[in-house]
Design brief:
Layout: H1 3-17, H2 27-34, H3 40-72, H4 79-90, H5 102-114, H6 119-137
Helix pairs in contact: 1-2, 1-3, 3-5, 3-6
Length: 138
């Protein structure tokens, strides 16, 4: 396997590890750290971008669920739900820092999409959280 194929495999594994379908840990990241020939900085960057793509897909799925809820329930949004969305846009994006926790991260990214949290703020905190996770816990 060439170096490029290895990094592509890492990207795919990082995407899959952050999707709702397969809540697991990125095994390729761990393997590439053990083997020689891979620069740690590049491995971390590829893994972080892969996780950002996976989190984006979960965020999108949460948004689709909200859209479906709006089309099924034509009565409009309650005041309680609107206040929850306002709170989410002010504070919930910070929970993206904890998206590296296997099952909690999936729930957080779905909730962020469902509550229509600002995408750029949320995905940037997801990337920062993953970067901290890779540098300090692996």
């Amino acid at each position: 396997m060439s170096i490029e194929e290895s990094y592509l495999f890492l990207l795919f594994d990082s995407i899959m590890s952050s999707l709702i379908l397969l809540p697991n840990t990125p095994m390729v990241f761990k393997a590439m750290n053990i083997l020689d020939g891979f620069r740690y900085e590049i491995v971390v960057i590829v893994a972080v971008f892969g996780n950002a793509i996976g989190a984006s897909l979960n965020y999108l799925l949460g948004g689709v669920l909200n859209y479906a809820k709006d089309n099924i329930d034509k009565s409009g949004e309650s005041d309680r739900f609107v206040s929850l969305k306002v709170f989410a846009n002010k504070r919930l994006f910070l929970l993206g820092l904890f998206s590296f926790i296997p099952l909690l991260g999936v729930i957080l990214t779905l909730a962020a999409g469902f509550l229509r949290v600002s995408y750029l703020r949320f995905i940037s905190t997801v990337m920062i959280g993953r970067l901290v996770d890779y540098y300090f816990f692996y």
